[in-house]
Structures are given as C-alpha cells and as structure tokens.
Amino acid sequence: MEWGDVMVFLALLRAKSLHEAGARLGVDRSTISRRAAALERSLGAQLFVRTREGIRPTAAAARLVPIAEKMEQGATELAEAARGADELARGVVKVATTEALAAFLVAEGLLALREKHPDLVIELLGGNRPVDIARGEADIALRIVPPREAQLRVRCVARIGFGLFASPSYVRARGVPRTPAALRGHDVLLPGGELSKAPEARWLGARPGVGVVFRTSSMSALVAAAAAGLGVAPLATAWGDRVADLERLMTLDEVPKRAVWLVTRPQARGALRVVGERIAAILGRAMSPARPNSR
To answer: With a threshold of 0.85, does the pTM exceed it?
Structure first.
C-alpha cells in the first residue's frame, strides 16, 4: 500500500460517509470513491460496505488497521523530524476538554510528547464548561458541539460510539444483559448534572424496569461505581474497553455516534500545532470504528 492509499483507508475508517472522508483529505466524494475502489482492487479484498447509515468496514479492513496506524505514526514522526530542531515545541499549552477525555488523552500517551519536546508543558483543563479560546482561557479545546466563531479553526477528529459496561462481579451476580429488553430488573448508573441530557444517559434511564441507583456529573466517579459492581453504566466504548475492571455488555447502536471537534486559533503554530496534531492522532486512532473490542 502506498501512503496515499493508507490516508484514504484511514479517512474512510474514521468518517461516517464518503463525503466526510473526502472533506478530511480535501478532495471530493467521487475522488474518494474512485480511490477506495482502486485500493480494493489492488488488494483483492472488499474493505468497506455501504449502508443507509454510511460506510462500514469489513473484517478484512479490521485486519489492516494496526498496520495502517503504524504507517500513519511513522509518517507523523518523519514529518516532525523533517521540521528540525528549530520547531521544537516550547512553553505552556492549555487544553480544555471534558474530564473523561482528559483522562483518556493522558492514558493514550499525550504526555509522551515531552520525550521529543522537553520544554513543553501541557495543562489539561478537565470539565464540562465551555471555554473561550478567543479570550485566552485555553489554547486548544475539544468540544462535542462545534463553536460558531469565525476566527477559530474547527475540525472533526473522531466520532465517539457508546456501550453499556459492568464489572465481572456484577454480571456474575446479576446476569449479562445483551439486549435492551434484557435490562429490565438491572441497576443502572447514570451521568448526572449537566451530563444528564446526554443521549446515552436518557436512553438508558428510559429503559422499562431498570432501577437507577446512582447519578453523577463526574465520569471518573461513574466508572469507579461501575468497576465496584454497583450497576450498569453507559460509557464511550473507546474508554470503557480500556478499563480493566469493566466488560462491555452491548454496543448502543441506538445512540448516534458523537463527533469530537478540535478547536484552535486559525494560525496555530509551534507548540499549539504539535499538541493539536498529537491529540487528533490519538483520538482518530483510538476511536476508529474498525478497532476490535478488547473483550
């Protein structure tokens, strides 16, 4: 596979449609469709199928994901090395995101940037309150709802899918609900406060016969409660699959995937560019729809 083919392949994995994949690469829908078909012919395998909801990867595509991601990482490192030492990232970069995404970025290696940029300091501002980049409250923001300010650069870097999770001790004691109807009689743990309106929280809370035993605006507390065996919790699959004390019960196909938007100033350079690109790479790789379930 040539690198151009890898870019098309990864864009299709991370997009919901041919149009969105083309937007990521700066080409039109027909170009993406043509290049995808040529890639499939060259490999002798079908990589994607078209559905009413968009494009979906096949099992053959899933097998190629780790290889393509290694090529992507290598290309990123090559580009960074080519820029030279004069573009070493320095100073403090403030990144505003949710509590859950802040913990996820740390766990997935965001702070490893300091190995190449020892004078870089990343300040993670975890919370659900929107920040004003134009006023200097943060340098980079990850948002679920894209801002409308014309002076900001906004791009979709991932789409988050959701699932239901519980601890092994809970499912041993209460059984494993694998369908929405099977949730009847189970204890559930729900996001609360400003997070109570999230689609996954409203969906789970509305299931007939469930018993709500805990609500919290802290996603870390929600994960801790689920890991302690107190009930079933809705979590982003990319996060829940990485918690050793939890297992995925089902994927919430009824809940639409949520776009994650990376927001920076239009001319983000130096440290802001380095941190922004690493965040985009982490989320794009970790939340790829073809990544197999770790359970």
So the answer is: no
